[in-house]
Amino acid sequence: MDACKRCGRPLKDEKSIALGFGRTCMKKFEAEEAEFKHIQITIDDALRVHNLKIMPEYFKAVASKAKRFEIRKNDRDYKIGDGLLLREYKDDEYTGNEISAVITYMTDYAQKKGYVVMGIEVAA
Ligand SMILES: [Zn+2]
């Protein structure tokens, strides 16, 4: 006998058998799926990380925590809370040195059009 995939009770009508769920469970299943997708989107959004090239002199300054800001063209829709993966770039290639940071503040005050200043905190 066909059983509901959610609660395991036997399924009686053809429509339920075709769906694999009883009527009530189908509704609950759909709601759970929607909630799951919503959570996924929230997580993906929360874990947004921007990969950025950074020149050695600035890499060092960020690594030593002397430089706690980045000025960038805002072509990536940066948001407070987004992660930055700063990848040291020298002579047209990545050196392999990287720093993870989080955007803590943003302003475009007195910046060239389209540019933004971001306060950053280097991840421990
Ligand atoms: Zn069920």
Number of domains: 2
Q: Report how far apart the termini are.
A: 56 Å
CATH architecture grouping of the largest domain: Roll
- Strand adjacency order, main sheet: 1-3-4-5-2
Bound molecules: zinc ion
Give the overall form.
Answer: elongated
Beta-strand segment tally: 5
| Beta-strand content bin | 25-35%
Largest sheet: 5 strands, mixed
Radius of gyration computed on alpha carbons: 24 Å
CATH topology of the largest domain: Archaeosine Trna-guanine Transglycosylase, Chain: A, domain 4
Helical percentage: 25-40%
How would you describe this structure to a colleague?
Helices cover 31% and strands 34% of the residues. It is of the alpha+beta class and 124 residues long. The chain folds into two domains: 33 residues; 74 residues, Archaeosine Trna-guanine Transglycosylase, Chain: A, domain 4, CATH 2.30.130. 13% of the residues are buried. Bound molecules: zinc ion. Zinc ion binds next to loops.
Describe this structure in a few short sentences.
With 124 residues, this protein is of the alpha+beta class. Helices cover 31% and strands 34% of the residues.
Write the layout of secondary structure elements.
Elements: H1 14-19, H2 23-46, E1 49-54, H3 56-63, E2 69-73, E3 83-90, E4 93-107, E5 115-122
